[in-house]
């Protein structure tokens, strides 16, 4: 590992039924354990940013989530509002149907528009490819398009599809982007052993709601 385990972790609370108290608890946990970020739905960005003021824990949110099939204009608007509200990192979902149809120019343009908005707002962009829905060839194509479009990271999953991160997918994504982009593994990572397996496979960030259990687990 190139950094402490806690700094690999995006402490995630994205369930639609999450209440303000639950979001505040996640923020407090992130401050206590000094995670890389707290990842919340856009509604909670302003609160999260305010509560993390004075810490080195970033505010992360999701764009076009979880389906990726919103319009590019709506993704850009969502990104701009999130950045204005204080988001440091945006995790956007690609247009999965367009990727599977082979409409690569549309997929790249969608990512690029969000990347430009993100970087104009001094943010970091992670691109969710939803690997469980893709063939290996499609995963490689998605990663290449994300890189060409100016993304900072590629990410395995939303955690809302039928499967999450796998060691195979992380290895494939890392092999595709080399050291040029970050790779975030998310979805189904519940234990320290899970997290370490993803890091050893090439993940530079981990998305998990079980972050506290991961960092407090006995070796």
From TrEMBL:
InterPro entries linked to this entry: Aldolase_TIM (IPR013785), DeoC (IPR011343), DeoC/FbaB/LacD_aldolase (IPR002915), DeoC_typeI (IPR028581)
Subcellular localization: Cytoplasm
Record's signal peptide: none
CDD domains recorded: DeoC
Principal location listed in the UniProt entry: cytoplasm
Pathway(s): Carbohydrate degradation; 2-deoxy-D-ribose 1-phosphate degradation; D-glyceraldehyde 3-phosphate and acetaldehyde from 2-deoxy-alpha-D-ribose 1-phosphate: step 2/2
Keywords linked to the UniProt accession: Cytoplasm, Lyase, Schiff base
GO molecular function, one term: deoxyribose-phosphate aldolase activity
Catalytic activity from the UniProt record: 2-deoxy-D-ribose 5-phosphate = D-glyceraldehyde 3-phosphate + acetaldehyde
Active site: 91 (proton donor/acceptor), 155 (schiff-base intermediate with acetaldehyde), 184 (proton donor/acceptor)
Transmembrane intervals: none
NCBIfam families per the UniProt record, alphabetical: deoC (TIGR00126)
Functional description taken from the UniProt entry: Catalyzes a reversible aldol reaction between acetaldehyde and D-glyceraldehyde 3-phosphate to generate 2-deoxy-D-ribose 5-phosphate.
Protein name, entry field: Deoxyribose-phosphate aldolase
């Amino acid at each position: 590992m190139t950094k402490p385990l806690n700094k690999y972790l995006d402490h995630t609370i994205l369930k639609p039924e999450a209440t303000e108290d639950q979001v505040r608890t996640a923020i407090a946990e992130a401050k206590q354990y000094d995670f890389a970020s707290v990842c919340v739905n856009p509604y909670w960005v302003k609160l999260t940013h305010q509560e993390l003021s004075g810490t080195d824990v970033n505010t992360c949110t999701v764009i076009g989530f979880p389906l990726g099939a919103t319009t590019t204009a709506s993704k850009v608007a969502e990104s701009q509002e999130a950045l204005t509200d204080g988001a440091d990192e945006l995790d956007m979902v690609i247009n999965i149907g367009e990727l599977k149809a082979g409409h690569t120019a549309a997929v790249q343009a969608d990512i690029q528009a969000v990347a430009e908005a993100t970087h104009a707002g001094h943010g970091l962009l992670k691109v969710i490819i939803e690997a469980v829905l893709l063939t290996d060839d499609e995963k490689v194509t998605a990663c290449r398009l994300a890189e060409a479009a100016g993304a900072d990271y590629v990410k395995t999953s939303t955690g809302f599809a039928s499967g999450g991160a796998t060691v195979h997918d992380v290895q494939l994504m890392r092999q595709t982007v080399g050291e040029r982009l970050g790779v975030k593994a998310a979805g189904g990572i519940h234990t320290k052993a899970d997290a370490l397996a993803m890091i050893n496979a090439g993940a530079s960030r981990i998305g998990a709601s079980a972050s506290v259990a991961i960092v407090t687990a006995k070796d």
